[in-house]
Amino acid sequence: MVFALTLAAILGYYRSRMGCITGDMPGAMTEVMESTLFLMVAVGWLF
What we know:
Helix content is 79%, strand content 0%. By secondary structure, it is mainly alpha-helical. The chain has one domain. Helix 1 (2-18) packs antiparallel against helix 2 (24-43). The radius of gyration is 12 Å and the shape is elongated.
C-alpha cells in the first residue's frame, strides 16, 4: 500500500511539474521509494 501511494505521488509530481519522465527520474524515484519503505518499516507502519 505504501509503495503504491508513494509511486502514484512521485509520478503525479513528475507529470504536473515536468510534463514528462526523463532518464534520471527513474533512478531518483528508486532512491525515494527505497528510503520511504525503510522509514515505514523503522516506524512500524509495515510488518
